Amino acid sequence: MADTVAARYEPPQVPMPNTAQQYTRNPPLNESDLLPEPLDQLQAWLADAQNAGMIEPGAMTLATVGDDGRPSARVVLCKGFSDGGICFYTNYAGRKGRELSANPEAALVFWWDKLERQVRLEGPVERMSREESLAYFRSRPRESQLGAYSSQQSAIVATREELDARMLAHDEAFAGQDIPLPEHWGGFRLRPRAVEFWQGRSGRMHDRLRYVRNETASWRVERLEP
Ligand SMILES: Cc1cc2nc3c(=O)[nH]c(=O)nc-3n(C[C@H](O)[C@H](O)[C@H](O)COP(=O)(O)O)c2cc1C
């Protein structure tokens, strides 16, 4: 074969980190440690993650399922709690937005490596009100508002320049004015029916405590094997 770049290419050989890592940074998680409400417990762990110096303690993986039955996942930011649910904001017309409109069920996962903790939530998802979405939109920097207005999230774009030019055109069109809240942008709220708190322990004997909704709308806590 000719001496092309492809012929000379050597894939990187990256050794995976030590898989015998023992999780011992935190004390065990006992049933008696848990607050009565799982979203209060989650907020306590979010505060711990913030205090541990995580850069984005609110980053969570959101899994959705398309109408072909295939799951997809991506990271979004937790932007608060309301009406018994956990909130994030996105483009309703992008992939996750369309999947959630067609199938309003999702799962969320936090992982805080500095604390060796994971939290998993599952439940139905609903759109937040226009008022709530507008209030959050207005709290964002102008550049972020412009980005939300200009991006056709998940669509294929030919070049970076096309995106930048669109953003610039909107910046000029709205000079001296507020960027309008786009119809296709706003919040989703996931109201969990189950929330699992996972604390890493040594020997892979991790603690897993899961809140599950009772018929009476109260919570029961069950312990799961690691
Ligand atoms: C740390 C982090 C935070 C993010 N936060 C958000 C967010 O809050 N909302 C959002 O729409 N996308 C967010 N993204 C981008 C998404 O991961 C994803 O690329 C985008 O939403 C498009 O996903 P989709 O095509 O599945 O709809 C974030 C990405 C990272 C890495």
Automatic annotation (TrEMBL):
It comes from the Bacteria. Belongs to the pyridoxamine 5'-phosphate oxidase family. Pathway: Cofactor metabolism; pyridoxal 5'-phosphate salvage; pyridoxal 5'-phosphate from pyridoxamine 5'-phosphate: step 1/1; Cofactor metabolism; pyridoxal 5'-phosphate salvage; pyridoxal 5'-phosphate from pyridoxine 5'-phosphate: step 1/1. GO terms for biological process: pyridoxine biosynthetic process. Residues 16-29 have a biased composition (Polar residues). Residues 185-226 form the Pyridoxine 5'-phosphate oxidase dimerisation C-terminal domain. PROSITE patterns: PYRIDOX_OXIDASE. Catalyzes the oxidation of either pyridoxine 5'-phosphate (PNP) or pyridoxamine 5'-phosphate (PMP) into pyridoxal 5'-phosphate (PLP). Coiled coil: none annotated. Binds 1 FMN per subunit. Its cofactor is FMN. GO terms for molecular function: FMN binding; pyridoxamine phosphate oxidase activity. Homodimer. It holds the Pfam family PNP_phzG_C. Gene3D superfamilies: Electron Transport, Fmn-binding Protein, Chain A (2.30.110.10). Substrate binds at residues 79, 136, 140, 144, 204-206. Keywords: Flavoprotein, FMN, Oxidoreductase, Pyridoxine biosynthesis. PANTHER family: PYRIDOXINE-5'-PHOSPHATE OXIDASE, PYRIDOXINE-5-PHOSPHATE OXIDASE. This is Pyridoxine/pyridoxamine 5'-phosphate oxidase. Residues 1-32 are annotated as: Disordered. FMN binds at residues 74-79, 89-90, 95-96, 118, 153-154, 198, 208. Its EC number is 1.4.3.5. The gene is pdxH. Residues 49-161 form the Pyridoxamine 5'-phosphate oxidase N-terminal domain. InterPro entries: Pyridox_Oxase (IPR000659), Pyridox_Oxase_CS (IPR019740), Pyridox_Oxase_N (IPR011576), Pyridoxamine_oxidase_dimer_C (IPR019576), Split_barrel_FMN-bd (IPR012349). It catalyses: pyridoxamine 5'-phosphate + O2 + H2O = pyridoxal 5'-phosphate + H2O2 + NH4(+); pyridoxine 5'-phosphate + O2 = pyridoxal 5'-phosphate + H2O2.
